[in-house]
Input
Amino acid sequence: QAKDNGRNSICFYTSDINDQLFHYQEVTTLLRNALATNGLQLYYQPQIDLKSRKVRSCEALLRCFDKNFGPISPAEFIPVAEKSGLINDIGDWVIEEACKQLQAWQGTKLETLRVDINLSGKQLTKPHLAEQILSSLQKYHLRPSQLGIELTENEVIGGDNGQIRQLETLKQAGVHISIDDFGTGYSSLVYLRKLPICSLKIDRAFLHHAMENDCDMAIMEAIITVGHRLGLAVLVEGVETLEQDRIVSERGCDLAQGFFYARPMPAADMLAFQVEV
Ligand code: C2E
Ligand code: MG
Ligand code: MG
Ligand code: MG
Output
């Protein structure tokens, strides 16, 4: 599925296997170049605490810039990076860069902001991932609670005991752990009870369906209730309108993220950002 294809998309999903192969190799080359030539950048999207209307955390979203193609969407290059194994080097870069940015924000109005990075399930299979993250935090003199990680439910459910233990180590140290895109995978509410997590991020497709359909609204409300009963914070992704902001606030969501508040932006713009909602 070519989801989220932007204007500068270079991705053409066709049935022609040669085209697909070309795409795969082309993107792999682009990514390898980007890694070697500072072509990667993290953008940051504020997460709004709906009670206080304040921003206390944000999500780091990867951007890849190529001088010929312009920006390439992570929806396109992350799956390719996972397939080619490049995701490990890219993931290492993201961990390091997020910590570097957090350190750069110390002494500014953003010094208490938590940054949540996205992890690929592949990274979780590295036996020393937790250690690596904690030592990056140490290297930049940060508290573990300044960092968060996001994993999709499928990546976590598939995890073996070793992977769950890594999450436990991180959570015990104080790293915030979120389930991303909740509601799109094989969501079983039961397994949530067993996982070392702090919050649920309800996928934006859910909110958009809930706007049109009473059943989906009922399911979203149920997820919020169950999340709260399990002691989890609940965030809704993809809030784009005032009406959606009102609905998620009324339904008791704790946090929201979406274009209505702010688009993902370069680190420098975060300093100027003020919530006006
Ligand atoms: P995600 O983690 O679910 O990130 C949210 C995506 O929704 C982002 O797309 C964000 O720009 C977009 N978004 C935010 N608010 C709105 C809204 O109101 N409306 C709409 N239509 N979209 C909104 P983005 O930046 O293109 O990232 C796509 C996906 O790529 C992410 O989904 C995540 O799964 C993956 N990704 C991004 N950065 C990284 C990374 O550093 N590592 C890994 N492994 N995956 C990443
Ligand atoms: Mg995410
Ligand atoms: Mg998400
Ligand atoms: Mg996603």
User: Anything to note?
Assistant: Residues 180-181 surround magnesium ion (ligand 4) (CB under 6 Å).
